[in-house]
Design brief:
The complex is a heterodimer of chains A (252) and B (261).
Chain A: H1 2-32, H2 45-58, H3 86-93, E1 100-105, E2 111-114, H4 115-120, E3 124-131, E4 137-146, H5 147-154, E5 162-167, E6 173-177, H6 178-181, E7 187-192, E8 195-196, E9 206-208, E10 221-227, H7 240-243
Chain B: H1 2-5, H2 17-21, H3 33-58, E1 62-63, E2 77-78, H4 100-128, H5 130-135, H6 144-155, H7 170-192, H8 196-201, H9 204-207, H10 212-250
Antiparallel strand pairs in B: 1-2
Helix pairs in contact in B: 3-4, 3-10, 7-10
The chains are: A alpha+beta (252), B mainly alpha (261).
Chain lengths: 252, 261
């Protein structure tokens, strides 16, 4: 009996050690392959990390569903937005002629683009769904320039891992990993349903990221910063969303 | 061993399966350790999913059918409750506090735990014979007479027989099978169908359901069915003897099921 329980003890001890070591190795590999979200700490970190890691592996090459023209929503909902600030109103008064998108950080050629410049790049369009975390949704045709094209123009450094993007509203910023940033359906959108993008839907320029919930598709984009670490931005949780209690990754 | 003797007591008609399915010589506990552990993990997760799910629904208590839906489109139905967002016209003059952030974090974390626990449960249930011995109804159970007797006994709120303290009756078996193999898979499926990233990889998840809003509506109704199951389950536990049933599910020991409190 004693022998048996001693053997049991040794075996379970070894198993536990192997388990802990295995977890350590798994964590290191996950970090290396970009499977750990910036909001991985805290009470809900494990669930968040599992979701992000598994969806990263599952959706590596997948495209968001696109719809036929007949599925476009009759009235694309312009949900409520925080009051627009004076800077926005000044630019709006000038027909957004002076709207600039600055791109900086880990790039070879930091740049500042006007809307006309962005529109001079090959325009792409997609009929995709915008899905809000609240539960509502609509389908629209979005046109714009793929973010990957703009990143090509400025030349991102090989060690770049995230694109941080900022709205003209200073409290409103998000970030995505390179996989989403270079995804063919990730747009800097300036048009909707064949027209200019209305202010209510994020015009003149919004991020469009159809594989994630609406709150990642930030409206009124004025700045992109390319970085290898999110530690220096805000509280280091990746974006304004985790600071407000929401998950950084919204592919769920 | 005296306690085990009780198993051999004459069985009443409502639980014919227990005669063959209770391995008298080997029974040491009413519920095996893996059943007890997965039961309580699932219970905790379900409560977390329920509370967080209610909070998430409150942010848009309208349901639609098809691909899209929002406050500009006609809903299938609306819940007559106030909302936590100003966007939704509810007829109430106030807006509830917004709890979506932590609710969503908790909902998906609990979903992970319950899915992994469920997988572990299914694998163990197959390997240990729990599924075959304790959940699949025996041949005798499936006769109309046995079925109607069991139903009648439940409807009369008759206390379960001594044999039933050791084995599930046919109604229990069918209900548990339905929860494990129909409702849980359906609630997981419809949940995944609402994930824009997941459906980008597996579009059939949502197209088979007729759209993302249909998935959300079905998710809501399956959740209601699970809540209904929980309520009936708790009532049945109370009728069967709350303390003895709880003891059986916590410690595994099944005492004399008549309580003398």
């Amino acid at each position: 009996m004693t022998d048996l329980s001693r053997r049991k003890l040794i075996v379970s001890g070894l198993a536990a050690t192997a388990g802990v070591a295995g977890l350590g190795v798994a964590a290191r590999i996950a970090q290396k392959y970009g499977l750990v979200p910036p909001d991985h700490a805290g009470l809900y970190g494990p669930g968040e990390t599992l979701t992000y890691a598994s969806q990263r592996l599952l959706t590596r090459h997948s495209l968001a569903r696109e719809f036929p023209r007949t599925k476009i929503s009759q009235r694309p909902l312009a949900n409520e937005i925080p009051p627009l600030n004076d800077a926005f109103k000044r630019l709006q008064a000038g027909g957004f002629a002076d709207w600039r998108l600055s791109v900086d950080g880990m790039v070879d050629r930091p740049a500042s683009f006007s809307l006309a410049q962005l529109k001079s790049y090959p325009s792409r369009s997609q009929i995709t769904q915008l899905q809000c975390e609240e539960g509502w949704s609509y389908i629209a045709e979005w046109s714009g320039v793929p973010l990957s094209h703009v990143l090509d123009v400025v030349g991102i450094h090989p060690q770049a891992r995230y694109v941080v993007y900022f709205s003209i509203d200073p409290g409103w910023w998000e970030s995505i990993d390179m996989e989403d940033a270079l995804h063919p359906q990730t747009f800097l959108a300036y048009g909707m349903n064949g027209d200019e993008l209305p202010v209510g839907n994020g015009g003149p320029l919004r991020m469009r990221l159809p594989r994630q919930l609406g709150y990642k598709s930030v409206k009124f984009i004025t700045n992109l910063t390319i970085t290898d670490s999110l530690k220096g931005f805000g509280k280091g949780l990746g974006s304004a969303s985790p600071e407000a209690g929401y998950a950084w990754y919204a592919g769920i | 061993m005296a306690r085990l003797e009780s198993v051999r007591m004459p069985l009443d008609a409502c639980a014919p399966s227990s005669a063959s399915s209770v391995p008298v010589a080997t029974v040491t506990s009413r519920h095996s350790a893996f059943v007890r552990v997965t039961h309580w993990i699932t219970t905790l997760c379900f409560l977390a999913l329920l509370v967080s799910g209610v909070e998430i629904v409150i942010s848009h208590p309208r349901f639609y059918w098809g691909e899209t839906g929002n406050v500009l489109t006609t809903p299938l139905f609306k819940l007559p409750i106030p909302s936590s967002r100003t966007l939704v016209p509810t007829g109430y003059g106030y807006v509830l506090p917004d709890q979506n952030g932590w609710s969503r974090y908790l909902h998906f974390q609990a979903a992970w735990v319950v899915v992994l626990t469920g997988l572990l449960y299914i694998i163990s249930a197959l390997l240990t014979g729990h599924l075959r011995k304790n959940l699949l109804p025996g041949k005798a159970d499936l006769s109309l007479k046995a079925f109607s007797t069991a139903t009648a006994n439940r409807l009369r709120f008759r206390r379960p027989s001594e044999a039933e303290a050791w084995s599930y009756n046919v109604l229990q078996r069918l209900t548990y099978l339905c929860v494990i193999f129909v409702l849980f898979p359906l609630v997981i499926w419809t949940g995944l169908a609402m994930s824009p990233a997941f459906v980008s990889a597996v579009p059939a998840t949502v197209t088979l359901l007729g759209g993302q809003q249909s998935a959300r509506t079905i998710h809501f109704f399956v959740s209601l069915a699970l809540v209904l199951f929980l309520l009936v389950h708790v009532v049945m536990v109370c009728l069967a003897g709350f303390r003895s049933r709880m003891r059986a599910m916590i410690t595994g020991r099944a005492g004399p099921h008549m309580e003398r409190t």
